[in-house]
Amino acid sequence: MLSYLIDFSNFMLRWLHVIAAIAWIGESIYFVMLDNGLKSPKDENCRKKGVFGEMWAVHGGGFYHNQKYATSPEKLPDDLHWSFWKAYTTWLSGFALFIILYMVNPGFYLVNPNSSWEWAANMTGWQANVLALTFLLLGWVVYNEMCKRISPNMERDGLLSIGVAIMMVVVAYLSTQMFSGRAAFLLTGAVMATAMSANVFFWIIPGQRRIVKAMKAGETPNPLDGKRGKQRSVHNTYFTLPVVLLMISNHYSFAYSHAHAWVIMALLIFAGALIRQYFVLMHAGKIQPGYPAAGVLLIMVAFWIGMPANQQANAGSESGPDIADVQAVIEQRCVACHAQSPTQPGFSAPPAGFAYDSLDQIVRQKESIQQVVASGYMPLGNMTNMTDEERALIGEWSE
Q1: Residue 9: CB partners within 8 Å, gap ≥ 6?
Q2: Of 210, 91, 196, 189, which is closest to residue 147 (Cα–Cα)?
Q3: How many angstroms separate the CA atoms of 204 and 36, rounded?
Q4: What phi and psi, each to the nearest 5 degrees, are found at residue 264?
Q5: Buried b (16+ CB within 10 A) or exposed e, 193-212
Q6: Are 258 and 375 within 8 A, CB to CB?
Q7: Which residues pair with 363 in a beta bridge?
Q8: What is the pLDDT of residues 87-145, one digit of tens each?
């Protein structure tokens, strides 16, 4: 019953997380589109009132007229719309999911027993939890310090972008060395998601509050508040597609179980940013198909790197090991979790719906089983003590 309650709570929390993320990212993308699509107002009265740009749009049977002021408008309404709770809810629900799914069983889900770094492979569960939290915190601190030091006045944002890109490659590499593959992808995405939420909490909203306060007091707002908010918002919009990809990556073991998973991850991060750049420019009236083409090229390179090597058949037999021998290993090492009614504590249903107490299911998932077993990702933390000989037997299974 406890496992079912945890699963159901996870289910509802994940739903909340997705809803909040859709609302936040959707609103963020809309405002980037609006900001880039503004045109100088044709009405002289609008220009005199300080209107910097405007956009006319039609949606849902109605017409909309959006205006952006370059200076203080004559009067601010009391019901000014603010955008921040969607960002906070997304991060808080995501962090709660991380606790339930990973930190409750860190020995299974965080520790990487196959790490080439001995200290990482031998971490205890609590050490892995502390390291994961430190990883998230340091990710934000390093990113934030880069923004403050490289482009404090928003005059070197191009150089800052290069620095952030290099940082993400380093984060991808470190995460795959210190944590299990699935957790590494998630934590890399969480570093970006944490930066996005922290940008809103520490920079965008406080800056906007200072601007509003100054305007209501009849004072001139500090222009750096607006520039900083714009800088962090721009970063957030380039993080969106990579973050979404990394958050759904736990369903695709070919990526996170590969020996060069950090390379695959970095390529996909850059691909997402390039594709997002195309849409950012498109909203400004610039169609540059080179960006999505470059993104697709990076995706294809990631596909090529992640492509599994052909399984070598057993030299002594054309068909490799007998299916009965393979099934015996899977029953002994995998079925505790991957069964219709798992016996492993903490599981109320088979992970990913794969129940290997059925021979038909084993045969259908042959390539996936061989991949995660060969990489050492499964069994999780090798909690069932699968031997190298048993891994080789599954790798040589051809029919």
Answers
A1: 100
A2: 196
A3: 18
A4: -60, -45
A5: bbbbbbbbeebbbebbeebe
A6: yes
A7: none
A8: 999 999 999 999 988 998 898 889 998 899 999 999 999 999 999 999 999 999 999 99
Determine the Cα–Cα distance for residues 220 and 241; give it in Å rounded to an integer. Answer: 36
Residues 323, 328, 354, 375, CA torsion sign: negative
Q: How confident is the model at residue 395 (pLDDT cuts 50, 70, 90)?
A: confident
Rg (CA), the chain: 25
* Residues 16-53 as b or e (16 or more Cβ within 10 Å = b): bbeebbebbbeebbeebbebbbbeebeeeebeeeebeb
pTM: 0.83
User: What distance in Å separates the CA atoms of residue 325 and residue 390, rounded to the nearest whole number?
Assistant: 10
Task: Fill in the amino acid letter for 102.
Answer: Y
Alpha carbon 192 to its chain centroid, in Å, reads 7
Residue-wise DSSP of 109-160? HTB-TT-SSHHHHT--HHHHHHHHHHHHHHHHHHHHHHHHHH-TTSS-HHHH
Q: How far apart are CA 272 and CA 298, in angstroms?
A: 9
Q: What is the DSSP letter of 260?
A: T
Q: Which residues contact 15 (CB under 8 A, 6 or more apart)?
A: none
pLDDT band at 258 (very low <50, low <70, confident <90, very high): confident
Nearest to 165 by CA among 245, 258, 239: 239
Helices (H), the chain: 2-37, 44-48, 85-98, 106-109, 118-121, 125-150, 157-178, 181-198, 205-216, 223-247, 253-256, 261-283, 290-306, 323-333, 359-364, 366-375, 388-396
State the Cα–Cα distance between residues 136 and 139, nearest whole angstrom.
5
Please list the residues that pair with 64 across neighbouring strands.
57
Torsion sign, CA atoms 221, 225, 230, 231: positive
Distance from the Cα of residue 229 to its chain's centroid: 22
DSSP 249: G
